[in-house]
């Protein structure tokens, strides 16, 4: 993954279209000395986090919760798989995923927030955009995928039940059967718990008794205090159908736990490569000097734009529709990690070039209150599609008839960046060579690591979400659940 932050850092020697733009850049871009002053603090924070991640004593003294478990987890899982190739968590996940793929042609993933956004980001990025519409052969027998339990919408749930109901009332073949993956660390999140209760009732009606429990996998804390764990045991789910959520990993940091790995494996993604990308990014984070360290530099830049330049809006501008789910996942990561103590940036996802025709006007000429981070994919997953010829050239596009869609997209990205630079609108570029499990693992781990560092720079604990608990508590009180 390549990165270029030059259009967010003021450089007096850089060519500029006018003195006005030089003056604007001097006020609205970060200056190199500002980054330099953070170098020692960044190195200190990295060392502090490494100490806390490796030492339970140091972690106990850190602000609580101190859920650093996600940082070294990808490397730990890969190491376990290498040491015990026949008996490890990845083998368990892949074995259960293979069984579900054999049994069912559809899968419903129940979860909300971090319990589903990571899986959604992976599936949208790495499966066919129209995966659910493809014939079973074109999908290589990978199940169709649906997400629920992420809201309390009666009509969307009713639509899903109508879609999944077998024609004869009882599922008689793989094509008519649906598997269920339930993800909830505590098991007390009402949206997911309610959806599971409703769907389980239908599961028992739609599937033979001996199959119903085999079509369900659960990801939760494997401890008696987890309500979902209690439910799974009461319903007679076998122990091998229950996967552990680590105690020291919070929901929005859980994409490399079974919360993300179980759905990814069922949907045919290479979870080892996903973990390898994340582990390599963590190694980069630990080993590279501060000035060459992507998570540290990304954190520093974001912190300075928010805390020093007073720019509260952070736009993740993804130049592929397949990355919209990633943007929504990052929205939650930033909002819940940094939005505390009456401070923190506001994240926005923009999908380009679509949103150039909605938000583009504001980005170009609106308030100077934002930093725009472009995420670009260099190579498409399919052969480039040429524009081609049209009889009579009535659309006037013959001069570019030899161009391909990726070339048009590159011109749009470069033209947009140039327009922003000409008016001193700061941008950065994160460039992925292609969309695959390895690059997504790298990018998502980088964003999580930088968010933790940014929280420490801002003086807030990047873990925990006490504000979210307030609505849950009030909702349960109104429903007389407590």
Automatic annotation (TrEMBL):
Protein's UniProt name: Glucose-6-phosphate isomerase
SUPFAM superfamilies: SIS domain
GO molecular function per UniProt: carbohydrate derivative binding; glucose-6-phosphate isomerase activity; monosaccharide binding
Annotated pathway: Carbohydrate degradation; glycolysis; D-glyceraldehyde 3-phosphate and glycerone phosphate from D-glucose: step 2/4
The entry's keywords: Gluconeogenesis, Glycolysis, Isomerase
Family membership noted in the UniProt record: Belongs to the GPI family.
Species this protein is from: uncultured Planctomycetota bacterium
Listed EC numbers: 5.3.1.9
PROSITE patterns per record: P_GLUCOSE_ISOMERASE_1, P_GLUCOSE_ISOMERASE_3
Enzyme type, top EC level: isomerase
Record bears the keyword Isomerase: yes
